[in-house]
Structures are given as C-alpha cells and as structure tokens.
Amino acid sequence: MAVCIAVIAKENYPLYIRSVPVQNELKFHYTVHTSLDVVEEKISAVGKAMADQRELYLGLLYPTEDYKVYPHMIRILYYTCLHVFYQIENILLYRHTRYGYVTNSKVKFVIVVDSSNTSLRDNEIRSVSQLLNLYGSLKGFQGI
Amino acid sequence: GSLSLSSFLPSLPPSSFLISPVSPPGAGDQALFTSLYTPLAQQLPREPMEWRRSYGRAPKMIHLEANFVQFKEELLPKEGNKALLTFPFLHIYWTDCCDTEVYKASVRDNMMRWQGKLRLHGSADWVIVVVETSDAKKKNKTNILPRSSLVDKIHQIKICVVLSDPLQDSSRSQESWSAFLLKLRTLLLMSFTQNLGRFEDDMRTLREKRNQPGWSFCDYFMVQEELAFVFEMLQQFEEALLQYDELDALFTQYVLNFGAGDGVNWLGSFCSPVKSWTGLLLRRPIDMEKRDGIQRGQASLLELRSYLFCRQCTLLIFLQRPWEVTQRALELLHNCVQELCLLEVSMLEGALDCWVFLSCLEVLHRIEGCCDQAQLEANVSHTVGLWAYATDKLKSLGYMCGLVSEKGPLSLELNRTVDLLAGLGDEKAETVHSLQSPYKKLKEALSSVEAFERHYLELSHAAVEMYRAIGRMRSAQLIGKSLAEFYMRKGDPELAESFLQNALRSYVSEGWSLPVTHTRKQMAECQKLLGKTENYLQTSALLAGDANLTDEERIHFCQEILTFANQSTDSKGKQPKVALSMSSFAQLKQLQFRPATATVHSGTALQVELCLLSLMPVAVPLEQLAASVHLNLEQGGTNGKTRGPQSRPYPGTVLFPLANSSGMPPSAACPSLELEEIQDRSPLDPHTLNSTGMVCKNTHLVMRRHDSSPSPDTPNLVSPVPVVMDDGAKVLMSGDVTLLPGNNSIVFSSQELGTYTLRQLCATVGQVQFVLPHISPLVQYEVYSQEPQLTVEPLTDQLLAGLPQRAKVRLQTGHYTVKKGDALQLTNIDSMPVLTSSSCPATILNSTAEHVGESVLFIQSSEKVTCISLPPTPPYHTLEFQLEVLCVIPSDPVWPENQRLTNGEIRHRNIFCHCLCHCLCPQMSIDCPWSIYSTPISLTFYIPFKAKHSLLSAGNRKYIQVCLQNVSDVNFHLMDQRLTEKHQESSLELQSLNTKAQQLVCSKQSVYCVWDVRWKENMPLCLQCVFSASFSSASEEVSSFKPYHYEFQLERVTTLYSVRAEIMPAAGEQNCHSGSLCGLEMSITRLAEPEDNEDDGETEEVCSTKLMYEVADSSNSWVVYGRSSGLVSMPADANANHRVQVELMPLFAGHLPFPDIKVFKYLPPSANSTSQPDTDGCVENDTLSLLDRPLDDQGDTASIRSRGSVHSVGSGEQQSRGLPMPRLEPFNPGQVFNHSQGCQVLVLPSTDDHVLEINAT
C-alpha cells in the first residue's frame, strides 16, 4: 500500500506528511519534496483545464526504483478539506489551523507507493475517495 | 533464384514474402524464371493492395514484396510448423510449353507430381503460369497447343495465368504483365491473410494453454515474435510493437504472480543467478545472440528484458518516438530492479548497478544517435531522468568500490571491482572502436579513484545542468546535495558548502523541516571542517533547538557552543565576541511592564519582565542578559500620560509573534502591518483637522524583499547574517541568569529619565553573544520627571457669582516633596473672598489615582493673604481639597458720563476680565513653596441674574420697573426687593407696589418689580437708583440670602409735554368710514417749564421750544393726507398748548388703533451746533417712508424729507459745504406723555363698498 502520503499546501510546504516505515521518513520527505518539481510541471502543463475541475489526477510521476510517486491535485473547499482531515487525525487540524495558509485550490496530495507492491494499479488512485481509503490503510497500519 | 534460409533472418529486407517458385527439372524452365525474375521482383511491390483483416481490424494498404525460392519438398511446412517468416505462401509453376507433344510427354507428369507433393502437405495456394512467347509459337507451328486446350487439359487446375511475351516491349505484353501481377498480388495476399489468420489462431490457442504444465514462455515468445517480424516486414511497426508489448505484459504479469506466490515452472530459468550484466545493447536491430538464448530457454531475466527492450526500441525509433524510448527505458530499469528482487535472483552486489548504469548510457547514446542536438535540448525533460539515474548508480558503485574516500579502495573493494568488471565481459564489436562507449566509461570509472571522480562529476554536473535548464530546481538541489556528500567524503568541504547552502535555502523557504534538519546537520559538519566558527556556532544553535533531532544530538550541538564559549575565554583573552542570532537560541515570547502603563515617574523603578523561551536542550548559564534601549529624543515625554502598551488587550503586556524555529512557511513569517493613525490638528482650534493619515510603523519589515536577502529575524538562515550590535546604547542588564529549557522569566528595572524604546536583546555566554537584533512590535517605556502642578477647578459645572461656591484645588506634587510647614499663600482679592474655615479635609492620591490617605488642612486668613498649610505629601502624588469661595457681584458700575443706560448689562471693571456672557473671571495668584513665581489662578463665575429697568409714566406720575431675569440653571428664592436712591439727597419717595415679600424665581424666568416715584420738590434731573434684593438657592435647605445689587440711572424723568389726539369723523358723519377722510386733532401741551440747561441756546433766544411732530402709522391702516409732520413752536410757559390738524383716511373698517404720534426736539441749524457729534438723535424711522412727507411751510425740514438723507444730516461731507443742517433729538422716555396711546377709533365700512375684503392670515 501507500508508504507515504503528503498533503502539500499551495506554497509547497507540507501540511501533512506521514510515512509508514518511520526509519525512512527523511527519504520520503526528500522524495516528496523533489516530486514537487514534476507536480509543478504538470500543473502548468495542464494549465487552464484545471480551473474547471475540482480535482486533478496528475498521473504517476517521478518513479524511483523503490517507490512510485503519485501526485494528486485537489481543489476542494477549505471546510471540506478540514472536515476530511478532522476525521483522519486531530493533530492535522491543529497544524492546519496553526499555519492557516491553505486556500481553496492548489492543495496537493502526493502519495508514495512501494514499487514492489503490485496490488495497486495506477488508475486506482484516481479519486479522492480512493485516496482516502489509502489514508485509512495507512492510519490502520501506523496506528495513528 | 533460391535463397538460403540460414542467412535469411538477419538480412531480411523488411517486408518480403517467401514465395516458393517451382521450376521444372528441365533447365529450360529454370532459365525461363531466371529471365523473368528481375522484372517480377521489381514490379510486384510497385502497387499497393488493400489488406482486409479479420476481427474487424481496419483495412490497410500494403506493398507486397516477395522472396522467390526454388521449390524443394523439404521447404514445405510440416504439420505443426509455427514459422511464419519462412512460410511459402504461394507456389508457382512456370512453363512456357506450347507444344502439345511436349506437354503430354513431360510437363503434365511433372506438374502432376508437383501438385501431388503440394497436396500431400496440404498446401492449396498455388498457381500455374504459362508464358507465351511469339518465338516459341513461331518455332513450333505445327504442334501448337492452343491455350484453351492446355487449360482444358489441366482441368483440375484451379488457377492458371497466361503471361504473353513478357520480355517484349509491347502493349500486349504490358497488359499481360499487369493482369498477371494483379492476379499474383491478389493470390499472394489471400494466401497471406489466410495463413496469418491461421497462425494467429494457433498463437492464441497456444497462449490459452499458458497455465498448463509444460507451457514455455520462451516458445510462445518465438511464436508471437514471428508475428511481430511479419508486421515489421509489412512496415506495420505499430502492430509489431504491440506484439512485443503483449509479450512484455504477459511476462510482467507472471513475475508479479510469482511475487504473489504463484510460481510457474518456466520462470525457473529466469531465476538462475545472473552472471553477465552487459547492459542493454541497442545498436543492432535484432540481437541474435540473446534471441538464441531465449529460443534455447537459457536466457536470464536481464537478457530477456534486454532483448525485448531492444526490439521495442528499434520499433519505436522506426515510429519516430524516441522520447518514449527514454521513458520506457526508465520504467524498464526500475522494473527490472523490482523483478530481480521479486524473483529473488542472486546477483553480485553492484552488478545490477553496473547493468543499470550501462543501460542508461546505452539508451542515451541510442537516442543521441537518432536525434539532432536541437531536438535533444528541447527534450531534456525526457532524458534527464536517465542521466540522474546513471549518476546515482555510478555513485553507489563508487561508494561500493571504495572510490569515494580519501584513502582509496581497500583490497576487499578491489576484489569486488574485479568481479564486477568480469561480469561485463568483452566489449561488443559494435562499440569497440567508439571512444565513449558506456562499457569503456564504466570500466574506466571503476579503474581508479581519479577516473571515477572525473566521470561522476561529469555526469552529476550534466544532470544538474539539465535539471536547472528545465526548471526542476529541487531535483537539481538533490543531486547537488549528493555531490556535497561526495565532496565531504573526499575531504573537500569548500566545494560541498555551496551545494548544501542551495539545498538548505530551498528546504527552508518551502518549509520542509526534516530535510532542513538533515541538511543543516551536514552543513554543520561542513562548516566545522571549514573552520567557519561563527557559522558553525549559529548552525549548532539552530540544531540544538531543533525538535527533529534526538536529545543526544541536540545536547551535542549545544555543548559545542558552550565548549567554544568557555575555551575562547581561557585561551585567547581579547578576541571579539561572536555574535549570533538569538532566534535559534531563545525566543522572546512576552514582555510585561510593571506598572502596566509602562510609565513611571523618576525615583520609582519600572520593571520589565521578559519571558524567554529557551530552545536549548540543557540549562545554559548566561553571564548576562542585556536589553539595549534607545532614548527617544523627539517625543519629548508624555509626562505620565498612558500610551502604547495600555491600549493592548492585556495592559502592560506585549506578546511577540512566535518566530518559528523550522518548518514554517515563509509567508507565515511575514510580519503583520502595524498601522497608526496620525492626525494633524490645527493649532488654533483643536476640533479642526488639517489632515489625517495612516502610517505603517514597520515598513522596514513589511516591505522587505523576501526572495533576496534572508530576513534577519527568522532563524531559518542558511548562513548566519551578521548581527549588528547597538554600540554605546543604554542597556538594561541582568547578570548571571541561567536559562532553563522552556520558559524563563527575567526581570529588568530601569530608573533613568526619558522615553525609551527597546531595541535589542543580547545574551552573553562566554565568548558567544546571542543577539535579537530587532524587537518588534515596538516597545516603549517612560520614566518621567514632572514639575509640581497646581490647578483649581470648579466642583460643579458652573460657578455662580454671588453665592458661596466650591472649587477643587489639586496639587500634583511631581518631583517635589511637600514637607511639613509648606503652605500655599493666596493673595486675597475683594471681589472673591475665600470663605475660610479653620480646617478642611484633604485627600492624597498616588500616581495611579489610588487613595492613599486623608489629611486636614489648616487655613489661616489675614487681611491680605490666605495661608493654607499643606500636609506632607510624597512626590508624584496628588493632594486634593476643596475651597469655598464667593465671587461678589459688582453692583455699581461706574459709567462714563455720556453713556446712556440702556439696559442692565454689567460693565467690566478693572479687576474683572472682560467677558461677554455675564461672567466674572477674578484672577488670583497663589504663591507656592516650590517656586519663586506666583501661580495665577483664574476662575470663571457666572452671574445668575440679569436686571433691566424702565421708566413708566402716567401723565406726570412716574413709576420705575425693574425686571430681574434668572439666567442660571438654578432656582432661587428672592426676597427683599428694594429700590433706593443712591444718594439720599432729594425728597424722593419710592413706594413699592410689590406685594410679595419672597418669591421663587425659577431658572430662565423673570420677576418684575414696580415702584411709584413721588417727589415733593422738584424732580431731580438725574435719578440714581439702586435695586437690591436678596437671593438664595432654592435647593439649599437652610437658605442664607445673599444680596444682589443693580444700579442704574435715570435722567430727565419729568414729563415735559403731553400729547392728546382725537380722531373726528368727517363733518356730518357719526363715525369714520373706511376710505373716507377724517381728521386727527392733536394737542401738545407743555406741562413743565423748561429747565435752564434743557436746550442750549434756544430758550435764551426766543423762550420757545421748537418741536417736531410726526404722525406715523405702523399698522398700515391709515393714510395721511397732507402733511404728516411739522414743526410747532412751544412757548416756554407751562400749559402752553398747540393744536395741529392732520387729515387721515382709514384703510380698513374696525376698531383701528390711533396712528403713532412722535414728538422730537427740533434743533435748528447753527454754526456751533455742528460740533455736536451726537448723531444718535437724528430721525431714523422706517415707518416715515410710508407717509409722504411734504415740505414744511417754513422749509426748515427740507433736509429731512426723505429717509435716506436724514442720516446724512450730520455727515461731515455736507457740513464741509457749509450747509448747516437742522437736527432732531428724541425726548427721553417719560418726557413726553401721550394720552391717546393705545386709543382706538371705530371705523365703519364704507357704504358703497362692493368689494368684501377678507384678510386671512
């Protein structure tokens, strides 16, 4: 399943980032941060088409030997965002409000999937609900 | 034309069909085909054919090309043959036999034998070609076999084509050729489609069996690849690629299934240990070596993958999709790593890295080979991944082989290198002569430390440049970071530093805390090696406060700082201290003033309590903590008025926005605007605004560019910004403080005079100083010194004159200490006596207006001064007490001689300031013990009453009326109203007609009092009267009445003339009628003899007085006919009478009031009278204009005929012309008594009035 999930603000700082093998946390941070290069590239390539969509799946990007990185652009309303997070983890809400810089748009979800994990197909991570299922699995695994 | 099969495949020209031509044993026929081969082979592919396909696939136009092979029985496909490439699609029997005999003799049998063989092998695709040549016909004219008969003879033959004169250039020949070719193509395509369909069906069947035991992927691979080859021949590269992609997917799925525990036997061969890692080889279209291996079932996973990718790559390049090659290559390489892992293939450590490295470079070389430079540059984004991957792999190889160390590789590492190189085998023939082949690169890179460095740096820099070029800065930084790590391993920290800085800046600016921490740790190591002490200490401070690190690590970095701080003092005595930013060390959270106003007077201590959040993991002993302050010169001082901190929600407390230690987005660190309203008020009128505006107080923080220089306040510094210390500034100090982890409270106190702004905070630890360069928001405090101030204020809204009033005396002691025996000395003034009592209570308040104590004042009053002895009062306290004062209402204004008394307005006297609104402002002065100067004190008292007097006459009798108006807001009791003569000289008797002894005069009400004036002897010319009354406030329980005096003067009171008027109807009428004339008879009688000085000059001359009368109607009900005014000369005798008749016409009916009759003194023009400046006496009556004023008989009034000229009578202009003007002077009130004033006369409507006038108003 997903080994790392990151929610990244419009300004590219991590709103939330969790990874399953905690000892590799740093590596995931680097991976997710570097993946923003491609996320930005894709966003600008998608351009105006994005304006109409509430969410945007950017496809698999930035694969490494070990992990696949799936970015996800989500355009959802702030409160929806908050609500969802609230369900996931209270601490997130805290961080969220503390920074308070999330806007309606350009919140990015980046999900890192173990390459050796073959049960997850690329097109299975297309929607937010599926993403949140992944969150769920992550949560259960990590015992958040 | 036969072709050998063995050499067929590699040299297979794209798209060629294998056709097995049949030539008869006879040499003649072989020769026939040979002669036709060249045009046939040339012309067959010339025209395309539409290829219709099964399963609804779209038809395509293809060109058919064929290989012609001599018929051999062994070439015929046997049962179960899977080969498609070598499949004979069409068998052709060539004959030019046209002789019946020959046919019968040999050809037929031959043909039958051929057919028999074909039948035997189930091949139904054949054709017999009969070549007719005119030469042959000519030769054998006798035994010509007619075409039809030949065709008839071989009736079983399905297809027979006749080619006529193929080698001659005639139209018949051409027609024959094209018909033949068309036929051939159709047949060929038909056969091909049929056989292909059969092949595909077989292939599918085979694939369906893939889960049966004994199924082999390699076998199936060969079958499907056969299909791919065929498509490739037909130039259907897309279709061909699809075949490989299907194979790829199938294989991938099996590997995945294997990983999931679903293994199959045939995969076993791919699980065998990998012995060769030569990398991809993309220079050949088909790597026959690997293909053979696959065919034999001996290929390793990498070999299969390599071969498959090589084929895909070839086809993609045919399809001109080179960028897909790079993308697929990266996926392939990643995937292979995973698959090797899944299949648990054992491989020498590093071998896979070699393979990946070689493969990356090979792909890049291949792509470079088929694209020009511009294309490559435009598509860096597609290749950069491979560059980076290669770099990464080379790096790990380098680390593995001990090439990245200062000492060089160990023997173990050397052995490993040898093993790795062995797996590469010999260089392939294709690249042997190329100087820059991946093989050579790898071999060289692994050969020595220097070579490795060269290659690694070259690759890294290339990748970094590429990433930068396409704007992937983060990726570039990541590679830069591994470069930095490399340099650090090589012991080259100078080169590492900039890469680390770049990366760190990026992580900091985007708020990625974990990478920040990690990179900062590397940075610390680098800085330490470089000996950049200051930077290292700053970084250490940041790390010591970094929550991402373990306690041990934090303590280590903290200890580094402390060690340095203590060492330096020991060894190097006078080295300048190292200044570091405080924000990483501790955060200023809160500041609290005691007292909360942040304002104290001199002599008391102002306490400032700082709350510092120490970020250090251990307690840090500070030698001192100093806050530097800046004396504000421009603001002067507020002298205790509150400002600044008090307007905040918590008085006296300043909260500082938490500067984040790490991981905070840069936008959040932006300071909020501090705005302040400024108002420019007019100096004259404080209620008028000249201008107003807003100023931003922290522009220097808000307007700072975020991109260029890092802000000095944020601790997320890549490298520490030099901290500038305020030199020579005043400081608040606190020594020997130990900062414990977490919140600490430090108290400063300040006593120095002035308004100060807190500027910097500086914590000193040995040789290290942590400086907070700016304290924002601005924090100010004030220590002020104040002069003693004495104020006297009314206790109530208004002070009323005439009554005892209380005033509050407030003494703000300021810096002065009131000692025992100090006294205030009030200079007594008559108009405002201090109502002394011997003692009065006083209150002492401290500077925050808290009640401190009570005391009693002793007041001693002498004739000239009132002395108030003050109780001892400490400085900056307020002493308050009340004084009772009385302001005497002045009663005897001394009027100038010529000023007429027209109303009761009180005129000022020299002791009062001039006030317009009936108020008195007595000025007193107080001598204070702290000053040699007297303090002037002014209080404003309002006079509660306004008095008016008037003289009333009834014939000769006189009455004086005094109207007293209460102008204050208070109700008064009034009693004892008296009117007396000021100087009791005359025999005047003033008899009061007032009945009430005591009266209530409410606010804004008036009281009228009347006196009958009687006199025995002559009436004095001038009456000087004093009205006096006693009043007391109605609200007071015990009424103590205070006097009120009002002095006035009446002149010429005696009635001189009486005027009596009568209106008579026209003759013969009983009543007056409107519109008809009636007469007014007025009689002026002199009642008293003229006094001596009454009119200067006149009496002496003629003993008569000239009077001017005037009939004026103010109600517009009368029209005067004839003269309305005239002069009469009154004899000086008493009772002299003069009658005047005036004709009037009433305009309305009803009881009409009499018109007004005015009498003036007429002063004839005289030379000396011009000097009389009094022009007030001139007639100025608006109503005159309504009446026409005909010229007087005597012409004396010529100058007063019109209103406008009257006023100019005495003007200097006319006087200068030497025309003396007569003057009119009105009588004083009471001098002329009009009997008929207020009389009315009945006017009847005129009899012939047809018009009824109704006035509705």
From TrEMBL, chain A:
Localized where? Cytoplasm, Perinuclear region
Q: Which InterPro entries match?
A: Longin-like_dom_sf, Sedlin, TRAPPC2L
**What is the superkingdom listed in this entry's lineage?**
Eukaryota
**GO cellular component entries:** perinuclear region of cytoplasm
Please give the biological process terms from Gene Ontology that the record holds.
Answer: endoplasmic reticulum to Golgi vesicle-mediated transport
Per UniProt, the keywords (alphabetical) are: ER-Golgi transport, Transport
One Pfam family name is Sedlin_N
Q: Which CDD domains match?
A: TRAPPC2L
| Family, as annotated | Belongs to the TRAPP small subunits family. Sedlin subfamily.
- What protein am I looking at? Trafficking protein particle complex subunit 2-like protein
Organism, as annotated: Hucho hucho
Automatic annotation (TrEMBL), chain B:
Sorted alphabetically, the Gene Ontology cellular component annotations on this record are:
cytosol; TRAPPII protein complex
- All copies of the TRAPPC10 Ig-like domain together span 790-941
Q: Where does the record place Low complexity bias?
A: 1199-1212
Q: Does the keyword Transport apply?
A: yes
The Gene Ontology biological process annotation of the record reads: early endosome to Golgi transport; intra-Golgi vesicle-mediated transport
Q: Which residues form the TRAPPC10/Trs130 C-terminal domain?
A: 1022-1244
Query: Sorted alphabetically, which keywords does the UniProt record give?
Result: Golgi apparatus, Transport
Give the InterPro entries listed for this entry: Ig_TRAPPC10 (IPR056917), TPR-like_helical_dom_sf (IPR011990), TRAPPC10/Trs130 (IPR045126), TRAPPC10/Trs130_C (IPR022233), TRAPPC10/Trs130_N (IPR056913)
Any transmembrane segments, and where?
none
Q: Does the keyword GTP-binding apply?
A: no
Q: What's the protein here called?
A: Trafficking protein particle complex subunit 10
Cellular location(s):
Golgi apparatus
What organism does the UniProt record list as the source?
Hucho hucho
The TRAPPC10/Trs130 N-terminal domain is annotated at: 27-325
Region: Disordered; residue ranges are 1188-1225
